[in-house]
Amino acid sequence: MNQSTQLVRLIEIAIMTGAAVILDIVSGMFLRMPQGGSVSIMMIPIFLISFRRGVKAGLTTGFLTGLVQIAIGNLFLQHPVQLLLDYIAAFAVIGFSGFFASAVRKAAFAKKRSALTVYVVIAVFIGSILRYAAHVVSGAVFFGSYAPKGTPVWIYSLGYNATYMVPSFIICAIVLCLLFITAPRLLETKRTD
């Protein structure tokens, strides 16, 4: 990969990181859960870069998104390990959706809407479920004291985190499907030689 292509890739990662953080801040203004989390479309830029550039770029963008949120203080902090789970790991793992990058791009460019929809939904589901798992572990370990009396902490954490992760998954899947059906050029990565 030449320097020009690498620079374009890094600029895209920086832009998508900034977009994810801004979308999370804006979403959090309207609905923020009491112990953290919100219904948010902040995953869309991370998914987009994952589909454009693959797993490595997606993981990097998610990781940087978590770091920026920590740096600007847009967080709900209980413990340093919880910080790693809820911000660094939870956002980085969204990048694993990039394993479907090739299939998503091929379906989009071939204008195969049903295949595109299936690949996008599966990829968004995988990224969302991995993020959800990080939040569930964090919730059970560090927020178990908030569970109602008699409710197992794992059940409480599964339910609490599902209240914002399920709608976030649905919204992101719909928005990305519509974006790629109407504008498949968003997935193009032209080489700059």
Description of the structure:
By secondary structure, the chain is mainly alpha-helical. The chain has a single domain, classed as Arp2/3 complex 21 kDa subunit ARPC3 (Orthogonal Bundle), CATH 1.10.1760. Helix content is about 70%, strand content about 0%. It has seven helices and no strands. It has helices spanning about 5-30, 45-55, 55-70, 80-90, 100-110, 115-140, 155-180. Helix 3 (about 55-70) runs antiparallel to helix 4 (about 80-90) and helix 5 (about 100-110) runs antiparallel to helix 6 (about 115-140). It is globular and about 55 Å long. The N and C termini lie close together (about 10 Å).
Quickly list its features.
single chain; mainly alpha; Arp2/3 complex 21 kDa subunit ARPC3; globular; Energy-coupled thiamine transporter ThiT; transmembrane helix; transmembrane
Gap between N and C termini: 9 Å
Structure summary, number of beta strands: 0
Based on the structure given, which CATH architecture is correct? Orthogonal Bundle
Main sheet, how many strands, which sense, barrel?
none
Organism: Bacillus nakamurai
Keywords: Membrane, Transmembrane, Transmembrane helix
GO molecular function: thiamine transmembrane transporter activity
Protein name: Energy-coupled thiamine transporter ThiT
